UniProtKB/TrEMBL annotation:
Lineage: Bacteria, Bacillati, Actinomycetota, Actinomycetes, Kitasatosporales
Gene3D superfamilies to which the protein is assigned, alphabetical: Ribonuclease Z/Hydroxyacylglutathione hydrolase-like (3.60.15.10)
Membrane-crossing residue ranges in chain numbering: none
Naturally occurring in which organism (per UniProt): Streptomyces vastus
Domain Metallo-beta-lactamase per the UniProt entry, residue ranges: 21-231
Domain of life (superkingdom): Bacteria
Entries under Pfam families matching the protein: Lactamase_B
Protein name from the UniProt record: MBL fold metallo-hydrolase
InterPro entries: Metallo-B-lactamas (IPR001279), NDM-1-like (IPR050855), RibonucZ/Hydroxyglut_hydro (IPR036866)
Amino acid sequence: MMMRARTSQVADGVHLVHGSNTNWVILTEDDAVTLVDTGCPGDREKVLESLSAVGSAPEAVAAVLITHAHNDHLGSAEYLSRTYDTPVYAHEAEVPHARRDFLHQVTIGEILKNGWRPGVLPWAVQALRSGGTKPVPVTSPQRFPPTAGPLDLPGRPVPVHTPGHTEGHSAFHLPEAGIVISGDALVSGHPTSRVQGRQLLPVMFDHDRRGALATLGTFEALSGDVLLPGHGPVHRGSVREAAQRARELAC
């Protein structure tokens, strides 16, 4: 039996959803919704279920925003685009990644090399069951508007370029709510990590580890006391301190 998605309200109009391996975020405003990430390919029913749980529906999704184009975050983006004509937005450096002009993602070989580490093989089996290797390119992803500031979408998220995990990885800042949606650039846990709490993902997942470390400085400059990561539970506490702890653990 498929496990249900766990949807929790973090603030007014902000919901964090835990899928099979990955989180996504739903921002609601009146009858419209912004969906930040879409889980694994096998999470489609969970995505639809989570929209229903917040009183919405897929046809009400004004846009899908992608933190980055790894399969476990891109899973249902093309489905929503094709079925409901939902626009899919990403940083300009991530747009070709979403189209699958190239793929910067941990390989099966790299996973096998790290298979001796606690949690890696069970995580890999679960990822495969969730469609982690299924091709999910987005046909027509669009880049964020070139002007800085909040997007004209429900929740008014502000894209923040946070490269390292991928070249075009982006976080989203909700300054009025004091919330940062951090994707995989700053997480609060992962099945392959022996560390609990705020951290970078294990090094095998990052395209550019030095860039991932450098981007923690970007998080340190963001005001906020709630972190919504791509993996792990919601973190309530200073985003700046969360980034500093991740830096200390990575050293």
